[in-house]
Amino acid sequence: MKNIFIVVFALLCFSVKAQQGPAAEVKFPVADPSPADIVYFPLNAPKAKAGEATKPVIKIVYSRPQKKGRDIFGVLEQYGTVWRFGANESTEVRFFKKVNIGGKKIKAGTYSLFAIPNKDTWTIIVNSETDKWGAFTYNQAKDIVRVNVPVKTLAKPIEYFSLTFTEISGGANLVIGWDRTQVELPINF
Fold first, then answer.
1. Mind listing the UniProt keywords for this protein, alphabetically (predicted)?
2. 113, 93 in Cβ contact below 8 A?
3. 3-state SS assignment for residue 45
4. Among 4, 21, 139, 161, which is 20 to 30 Å from 34 by CA?
5. CA dist 176 to 23, 51, 55, Å?
């Protein structure tokens, strides 16, 4: 009797599945022309093995637009205008512990990064609003700190908007590069 019940149950399940027809194909979005990336400080933090002392202090999630033969700063990204610091969603920075930027103490947490590029200096902005698309709804009232940093002109252009860190005494420099422009934001811990 048990065997008959199992066979009948299996046939019912098969019958119901057969009536549903073939599953619809899922359409996946095409690859984004400005791929997302992540940079950590220390740079090797995500590769550290369990139990090692290397834990992240900073994590930045950003999208990397390409130069594609265009003039970037002063043309594509206008001087004196708030810029999303990459492409797509606003760039987000997570501090895993308190940091000091431009003399301002910032609590551990997640923030957005914006910039106002100019020919000789940039204003780097740490803002409390996250999960925004671009700088379209940027709210200056939510700024945590603004820091002016000098521009360094590079001999060779960088194709992709790029971020990395270099270690400094008591912290790290966030190094930003794209086209022939490089700026550095000191972050102290």
1. Signal
2. yes
3. helix
4. 139
5. 46, 31, 22
